[in-house]
Amino acid sequence: MGVHRGLFAGEQHTHGLWHVSRVVHDVWCNGEVSYSERLWPSAWLYIACALVIPASLLVFLPISITAGVICAAVLYLGAMGLLIIPAPRIEVSGRTLRVGRAHIDVALVGTVAAYRAAEATAERGVRLDARAFLCLRPWIDPVVRIELLDISDPAPYWLASSRRPDELIGAIETAKALTS
After folding, report:
1. Which ranges does the record mark as transmembrane (predicted)?
2. What is the C-alpha separation between 13 and 4, in angstroms, rounded?
3. 98: alpha, beta or left, given left = phi > 0 and alpha = psi -120 to 50?
4. In whole angstroms, how far apart are CA 22 and each of 15, 100, 150, 162?
5. How far, rounded to the nearest angstrom, does the alpha carbon of residue 12 sit from its chain's CA centroid?
6. Cα–Cα distance for residue pair 57/9, rounded to 1 Å
């Protein structure tokens, strides 16, 4: 795996192993994206999924060492793929807010609030409206509640997990101020 140090233009958000950093709150090279976050699984989840390795080895080693090692690798990589590939992105670019596959013009966004700890649990539980659009990940505690002003949208608000809710709120408020 190669390590690079800014070989190409617009790579200020890479951390040296050809991966984009988890959270970017800056203007990217196209000048439009003001906030971008990918809801990657946390480190403890990678470690917990590694338990599939000894389990599959115990099952397949009596058959063949090669089969045990291959099955362990395939099962671990498959479990990681099922967590990494569908990881949603939260993005504020220009006049658009994207949360997962949903998107809305920031002019149609009302109040935006961040919740942590017990308040976040209450937002995901007892205070949750069944009509709300959800983009939640259990390994991320803070949530952001985004009220919608669009009367044609059946969801009264969006509830999304975010590792940096204050930065997300700031980006949404900045985008709203620029559009009005």
Report:
1. 43-61, 67-85
2. 12
3. beta
4. 10, 15, 30, 11
5. 20
6. 45
Amino acid at 144: V
pLDDT tens-place string over residues 9-44: 444 444 443 444 444 444 444 447 889 999 999 999
44, two tokens: 């403890």
- Measured from the Cβ of residue 96, the count of other Cβ atoms closer than 10 Å reads 14
Q: With 80 as the cut, is the pLDDT of residue 150 above it?
A: yes
Q: Give the pLDDT band of residue 179 (cuts 50, 70, 90).
A: confident
Quote the CA–CA distance of 71 and 57 in Å, as a whole number.
Answer: 8
The pTM assigned to this predicted structure is 0.75
Question: What pLDDT score was predicted for residue 32?
Answer: 77
Nearest to 147 by CA among 114, 180, 179, 122: 114
Q: How far is CA 85 from the centre of its chain?
A: 11
DSSP 112-135: EEEE-HHHHHHHHTTT--TTSEEE
- Residue spans of alpha helices (H) in the chain: 43-49, 52-60, 65-84, 117-124, 165-179
Q: Which residues lie across from 102 on neighbouring strands?
A: 99
